[in-house]
Specification:
The chain has 106 residues and is mainly β. The protein folds into 2 domains: 70 residues, SH3 type barrels (Roll), CATH 2.30.30; 34 residues, no CATH class. It contains no helices and 8 strands. The strands form 3 sheets. A 3-stranded antiparallel beta sheet has the order 4-1-8, with no helix packed on it. Strands 5-6-7 form a 3-stranded antiparallel beta sheet, with no helix packed on it. β6 and β7 form a beta hairpin.
Length: 106
């Protein structure tokens, strides 16, 4: 999961012809600042200054500036307190199902 720091427009590769090494489908999408997005870094470029992202639907964005988003963590619950060790939310809180872990102070 990631969260963009400002509204960000990306070109997403939605279809790719591996046999001919050719992009066959693209679309543009605007991601709103602060909203969690299901995406993972799949490649680091230029020492990590840029990255390639793969989204939950399988689409890919190439050469995205690394400083335009924050990588969000998954919750890690302590067996002693039943709370996340990063953000403090209780495992029994219903809102954890709809959001990533955001450590306090971010």
């Amino acid at each position: 999961m990631i969260r963009f720091n400002q509204d960000t427009e990306l070109t997403l590769i939605t279809d790719y012809d591996e046999e001919n090494d050719n992009i066959t489908g693209e679309e543009t999408e605007v991601f709103k600042a602060g909203e969690p997005v299901d995406a993972e870094i799949i490649a680091w470029i230029n020492g990590g200054e840029y990255v390639d992202l793969q989204f939950g639907d399988g689409s890919v964005a190439l050469t995205v500036q690394r400083d335009c988003f924050t990588h969000l963590r998954d919750h890690l619950f302590s067996p002693e307190t039943n709370c996340c060790v990063h953000c403090g939310i209780s495992a029994e809180d219903d809102c954890i199902e709809n959001g990533p872990c955001v450590p306090s102070g971010l």
